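Pilot study result, target chain (228 residues):
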Amino acid sequence: MARHIGIVACSAEGAALCYRTICVEGAALMGAHAHPEVSMHTPSLADYMACIYRGDWPGVAELMLASADKLQKTGAEFLICPDNTIHQALPYVLPRSPLPWLHIAEVVAAEAAARGFRRIGITGTRWLVDSTVYPDKFEAQGLGYERPTEAERDEINRIIMDELVCSTFTPESVAYFQGVFGRLKDAGCDAVVLGCTEIPLIMNDGNSPLPTLDSTRLLARAALGRAV
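Predicted structure:
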């Protein structure tokens, strides 16, 4: 029997992509139409954002723990969070969590190392890019990294929060990401992490100047691997 996956969700589009990936790609491991049991809990994104805007990461952790408790009661056996930004609260979560977690940045860093990349561009919300969530995991794998400029971080954050999480996808935003990825390539990066779970909805290996590390699908596949 496959293990029951619990999804601690934050923003809808990223969580939906993660869920769909688990369900669709489960068949390759388990047989036609098969996938592990999956439960997901999602508080209002506004509740998360109220904490994030005031830098209250313990408050973010309380929301994550509330989801974790609910998911344990549904029978989930381990947890994933398809939201890079709120992984900043995970140090407050893990000591009190009722279930074990997969860490999205650990999954991405392991994939980057396995594929032989050496210097990774980090993209995502302003809070994520300013944090040590990815640098810590990249350094543990011996990988270098590069962040976008201050202006690029602000515009990427605007695109994510005003467009992508609201299911708005525009050619202009694709072009902006392509420009940032091209500059990261010029700065010596050999891959870029799509470090917001909504970025894969507009960027991929087919339209990126750099190979992409799709954090959403990589996390979903890691959960499948653990489940089966």
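One observation from the pilot: The CA atoms of residues 52 and 145 lie 24 Å apart. A full batch analysis is planned for the follow-on phase.
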